[in-house]
Amino acid sequence: MLLQQLLNGVVVGGVYALFAVGFNLVFGVQRLLNLAHGAVFMTGAFVAYYTVRAGGPLILGFVAAAIASGVLAMIIEIVCFRRLRKSGDAEFGAIISSMGAGMVIMTFWQWVSQTQVLRFPFDTVPVVIYRFWGLRVSLLQLMMAAAAIAIVLVMAWFIYRTAFGRQVRAVTDSERASMLVGINPNRIYNLTYFISGALAGAAGVLVGLAFNNINFTMGEPYLMFGFAIIILGGLGSIPGALMASLIFGMVQTLSIAYLPSGLTTAFIFSAMFLILLVRPNGLMGREEAGSLRGRR
Amino acid sequence: MMNLLLGYQPLLDLFLLHLGLAYAQWLVLRAGVFSLGTVGLAAVGAYTGGILVVTYGLPAPLALIASALSGGLVALALSVPLARLRGIYQAIATVAFIQIVLSLNIYATNVTGGAQGITGIPKTVGTPLLLLAGAATIYLMYAITHSRLGRAFDAIRQNEAVAASLGVSIVRHQTLAFVLSGALAGVYGALEAFHSYALVPSQFGFPYLIAILSYVVFGGRTSLWGPIVGTAVLILLPEVVRPLADARMLVFGILLILTINFLPKGIADTLIERARGRRLGARRPAEADTAKGS
């Protein structure tokens, strides 16, 4: 029973990782919170749903969702953040601006879906259950885990092993210095937002499939969980976000199984408060949470 | 004429209720506290008021005082962890606080009524009382702005290091601002409960937070006029332009993006600054540049 819960937790954690790694990647590179990330995530689910309903195979829906969400995130960066970053008060402004973007995207999908709950056609993913060592794993869970692992590995390779990734990390360290060595930061920002959005979109498809419930408010709780995960892992740290997502997924499934129902959310966010108090930089963060500097 | 005015009375009530919360949000932002928790504190106040009146049969004025106290006390407790955090971390922590309040309100069914909330709250608050509360709130804010306290808040917001070097205690002032804001939010939460018969947990969620933030950002974050202008315009806009009423969220979203990008100080603050610049420019052309730079 416990083992089964842990297994479920790892699968859920993998999906959270897709969401939170992109969220944290953007924060790491620009020091800005993108509150529209939940809406981008939702966009992935909707795009995949409409692709599948139009008769496309699921894999096409998955790819279309990732690309559409990635492009959407890129547009958000250009429209909402580019001007603000030059103004000097981007920290507060980005929260407001991306909140606005999230509302616009939510309204759009509310109109498209006419406020209905959408469900993938039955048998989009065949219901197959494998049993081994007394554990039950569904095909969907295997798909989720495989997709999460594959996507995160590709992204890690991209960030840590390619020239593009080196440029991303250079811009993260210092935008000015990277410009001096001939990197165009705006191009790098576009790229990181595309990656971040595509990861969120992929997570959206997986969550949509897992719960078979797609609606225009589905992004909000994930945005909240995203906060908790990146606080635990450390703002801006990608390995931290990965580890925290897995821990978070397991804690969540365990607390749903063993704590009184309804207390899960309160428990998770209270734990987040404790982490902020005891270890504000998270497991692997380098950022100073309490640093004293002039703002605004 | 009278009928026309009466038709707008619910709108006036809405404006006054939201104005109070907008001021609560404005006050913390002015002191440089990056809190988004106003809505959560309003929920604390509203539930305190609702429970005291419905379950324990307390008279509304007493419950209102208790709501202010509870909002202030919770804010005081919350300010301890917040004082150790900066910027984005404060924003995240306060959003988490809203979630905690929300889920506890849903969970504690026998105290708060769970997801159904509290119903049958006697309606004791009407437009006259709300007008009175609005006037009192504006006066309080005016008094704070024009006292040593307001100047200390401004100094902290503009530069913490400089404020500290001038002997302004950052933690003490920010705690004070946060507690005052919490008490104000508590009062207005309770007023809302006493005004509308019923309370549900989801009422004080993310959409409400966005609305309150929009008022302050759109109007202005430093001048006294900011919340008034922002709340008035954003509440009236969907009413005046009827087709917009369905697309409220869309309009708010687009306005938020446009305002923060092109008028980052908000409408009222930008106009006031411009008027002040013109006045100073006309009187002392040579010093106009220094005035602009300060």
TrEMBL record, chain B:
<protein>
    <submittedName>
        <fullName>Branched-chain amino acid ABC transporter permease</fullName>
    </submittedName>
</protein>
<feature type="transmembrane region" description="Helical">
    <location>
        <begin position="34"/>
        <end position="55"/>
    </location>
</feature>
<feature type="transmembrane region" description="Helical">
    <location>
        <begin position="206"/>
        <end position="237"/>
    </location>
</feature>
<dbReference type="InterPro" id="IPR043428">
    <property type="entry name" value="LivM-like"/>
</dbReference>
<feature type="transmembrane region" description="Helical">
    <location>
        <begin position="88"/>
        <end position="108"/>
    </location>
</feature>
<feature type="transmembrane region" description="Helical">
    <location>
        <begin position="175"/>
        <end position="194"/>
    </location>
</feature>
<dbReference type="InterPro" id="IPR001851">
    <property type="entry name" value="ABC_transp_permease"/>
</dbReference>
<dbReference type="GO" id="GO:0015658">
    <property type="term" value="F:branched-chain amino acid transmembrane transporter activity"/>
</dbReference>
<feature type="transmembrane region" description="Helical">
    <location>
        <begin position="129"/>
        <end position="145"/>
    </location>
</feature>
<feature type="transmembrane region" description="Helical">
    <location>
        <begin position="249"/>
        <end position="268"/>
    </location>
</feature>
<keyword id="KW-0812">Transmembrane</keyword>
<keyword id="KW-0472">Membrane</keyword>
<feature type="transmembrane region" description="Helical">
    <location>
        <begin position="62"/>
        <end position="82"/>
    </location>
</feature>
<keyword id="KW-1133">Transmembrane helix</keyword>
<keyword id="KW-1003">Cell membrane</keyword>
<dbReference type="GO" id="GO:0005886">
    <property type="term" value="C:plasma membrane"/>
</dbReference>
<dbReference type="Pfam" id="PF02653">
    <property type="entry name" value="BPD_transp_2"/>
</dbReference>
